[in-house]
Design the sequence.
């Protein structure tokens, strides 16, 4: 049972001499068709906006594939980075929405409404730079990366890993939520930052804007997929996998294990932050309910359902779990938690490699056989890509 | 921040907040004891630990209702029956879970985390369906109400003292069972070297199951004690799970003494800070301090010296 993901991994890893092998190319094209052509044509703008919301989680899931699937570092605090990215974007949008003309009725015009409600009369210092759009864009990437760097450096340099790392990241998610909720005057408290209107003067609430944002998001998503695939194929990606399997051996070979782990963790954090920033744009608000323990662990389940070793799987897993969540909680609200809980257990017990594993074990061989049967068979009956590629002979 | 209080006032504040901290300490210890056995000894991360605790709380609530209806004269002592029932209920559910779920995952600790999280979601929803989403509170018998007037300005609630006495007793029992009984020796042998323990004739599967059951049973007792100082809702367990894990990790996972010491430090810091700051900031500062200390000293306060 334990060998599930690793076995599948070895099949995937060995076949990579090109950027995409055949099945990955098919996966890439299928996903592109689905997201760029089929979904925008088939769904109305409301449903498409829902898909856009789900896809923001897919960024987090791709980051988790890198960090957890390949690197073996389970972070239960991805909501922190999702939230940091989202809050950076929300702060910019909020400042734009609370210009002096828009907030004439407040006792202090020109500051966000929730600050006015909390008797704050001056814009806090850390809000001020968010008047600038370029600064905001930089902050969305750099703030979470820096935060992840500090956490990662403090933990991995001292060889804290595995379970301890998971628990501490979870605690950090809890701390940040309590902090945001508690400091209502500076953060908007439990309601978060709401009533966002324009991005650089462009109204983000119209249907047209939502459509454009969706396509921007899909392009960014494919950018992240390609980047993740690139990281996976470089030496760095291979060292990550080696480290997951035999950390000491990698260390004794002279690699600085901690630095590779820090990199993977930071990359995952940046992906999550991009997702968070897009979430704010798509949905129009940001609140601590996307930062805490529960959302963070739900993001892990998206990755686990999709397949923790598969970048495409992470995207499909995110979409599927979220569709299931929306439709189940719309019709049978009580069943949803039972379903989600059962999904966790089933994925862990029966399908450790997730959807991607099921695909690789049951669907892919059939497709391969279909292709293979049309080709003339070579001498002893081996298909072209079995033993030569190092796949286990059956 | 101390300016407006006199020295005498401050003394009373520290004593009373200290005592409030001791009650929090008792709950932490009871929850963390079960977790320290499961996580520290077996290496299994049980995210559903809070839900086992809540099960104990609901069992206590049902027992109290049953006694009120059917045997009102025995009501003053219902709590002892309830505690036993809570231990049995949580313990047997724990053993069932170990058999169905955990035993397949001993080699994959991160996956136990995900699976038990799924279990906790299912249990929460089950509590919500069965007992309703509203919080329930038990009625305390008369002798547990009221408080003891130590001096003019210091009052100590009796139910708090009872919870503390209970905690002390259970800690002693657990320490005895783990460190001096034959079964405890078997548990520790299995933890240290599973294969060798099996080779000398210890039934490791059985030991695992009972260890997990014991940890969950203690969580049930913790829940039972919890009803005396607060009300119980379906998601109350989740509020405590992160704190409890931090208590165990901060203390040094495999050390019972460390768990107790860290529960003491954390609860005292938090309740003393709570008086001067808002509740949320007190919690943030306490948790941040723990995380910072853990980053500097990842093995926790009391680390066992093990050759690896």
Sequence:
């Amino acid at each position: 049972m334990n060998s599930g993901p690793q076995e599948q991994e070895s099949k995937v890893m060995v076949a990579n001499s090109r950027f995409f092998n055949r099945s990955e190319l098919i996966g890439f094209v299928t996903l592109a068709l689905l997201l760029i052509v089929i979904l925008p044509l088939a769904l109305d703008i409301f449903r498409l906006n829902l898909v856009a919301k789900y896809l923001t989680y897919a960024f987090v899931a791709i980051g988790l594939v890198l960090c957890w699937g390949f690197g073996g570092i389970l972070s239960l605090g991805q909501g922190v980075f999702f939230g940091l990215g989202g809050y950076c974007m929300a702060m910019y949008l909020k400042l734009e929405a609370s210009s002096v003309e828009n907030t004439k009725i407040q006792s202090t015009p020109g500051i966000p409404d929730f600050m006015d409600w909390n008797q704050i009369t001056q814009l806090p210092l850390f809000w001020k730079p968010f008047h600038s759009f370029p600064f905001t864009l930089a902050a969305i990437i750099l703030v979470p990366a820096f935060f992840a760097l500090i956490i990662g450096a403090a933990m991995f340099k001292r060889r804290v890993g595995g379970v301890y790392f998971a628990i501490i990241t979870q605690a950090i998610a809890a701390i940040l939520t309590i902090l945001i909720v508690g400091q209502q005057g500076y953060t908007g408290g439990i309601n978060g930052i709401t009533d966002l209107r324009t991005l650089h003067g462009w109204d983000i609430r119209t249907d047209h804007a939502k459509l454009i944002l969706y396509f921007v998001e899909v392009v960014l998503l494919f950018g992240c997929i390609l980047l993740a695939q690139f990281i996976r194929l470089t030496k760095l990606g291979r060292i990550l996998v080696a480290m997951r399997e035999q950390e000491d051996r990698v260390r004794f070979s002279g690699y600085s294990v901690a630095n590779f782990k820090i990199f993977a963790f930071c990359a995952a954090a940046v992906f999550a932050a991009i997702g968070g920033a897009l979430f704010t744009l798509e949905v129009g608000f940001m609140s601590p309910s996307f930062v805490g323990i529960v959302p963070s662990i739900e993001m892990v389940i998206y990755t686990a359902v999709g397949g923790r070793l598969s970048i495409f799987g992470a995207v499909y897993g995110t979409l599927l779990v979220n569709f299931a969540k929306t439709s189940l909680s719309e019709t049978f609200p009580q069943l949803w938690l039972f379903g989600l809980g059962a999904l966790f257990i089933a994925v862990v017990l029966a399908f450790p490699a997730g959807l991607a594993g099921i695909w690789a074990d049951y669907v892919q061989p059939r497709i391969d056989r279909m292709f293979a049967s049309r080709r003339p068979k070579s001498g002893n009956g081996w298909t072209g890509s079995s033993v030569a590629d190092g796949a286990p002979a059956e | 921040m101390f300016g407006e209080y006199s020295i005498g006032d401050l003394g009373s504040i520290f004593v009373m907040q200290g005592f409030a901290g001791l009650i929090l300490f008792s709950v932490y210890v009871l929850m963390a004891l079960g977790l320290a056995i499961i996580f520290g000894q077996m290496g299994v991360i049980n995210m559903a630990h809070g839900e086992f605790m809540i099960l104990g709380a609901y069992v206590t609530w049902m027992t109290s209702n049953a006694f009120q209806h059917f045997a009102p004269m025995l009501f003053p002592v219902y709590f002892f029956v309830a505690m036993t029932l809570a231990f049995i209920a949580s313990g047997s559910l724990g053993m069932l879970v170990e058999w169905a779920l955990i035993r397949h995952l001993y080699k994959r600790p991160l996956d136990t985390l995900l699976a038990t999280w799924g279990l906790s979601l299912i249990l929460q929803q089950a509590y919500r369906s069965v007992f309703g989403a509203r919080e329930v509170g038990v009625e305390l018998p008369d002798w547990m109400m009221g408080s003891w007037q130590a001096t003019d300005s210091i009052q100590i609630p009796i139910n708090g003292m009872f919870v503390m006495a209970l905690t002390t007793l259970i800690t002693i029992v657990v320490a005895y069972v783990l460190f001096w009984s034959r079964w405890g020796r078997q548990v520790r042998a299995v933890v240290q070297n599973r294969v060798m323990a099996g080779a000398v004739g210890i039934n490791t599967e059985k030991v695992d199951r009972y260890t997990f059951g014991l940890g969950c049973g203690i969580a049930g007792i913790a829940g039972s004690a919890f009803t005396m100082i607060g009300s119980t809702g379906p998601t109350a367990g989740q509020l405590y799970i992160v704190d409890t894990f931090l208590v165990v990790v901060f203390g040094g996972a495999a050390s019972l003494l460390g768990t107790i010491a860290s529960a003491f430090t954390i609860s005292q810091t938090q309740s003393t800070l709570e008086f001067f700051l808002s509740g949320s900031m007190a919690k943030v500062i306490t948790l941040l301090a723990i995380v910072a200390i853990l980053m500097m000293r990842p093995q926790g306060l009391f680390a066992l010296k093990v050759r690896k």
Q: What stands out?
A: The interface with chain B takes residues 1-2, 74, 76, 154-155, 158-160, 162-164, 166-168, 170-172, 174-175, 178-179, 181-182, 293-294, 297, 300-301, 304, 334, 337-338, 340-345, 347-349, 352 of chain A (CB under 8 Å).
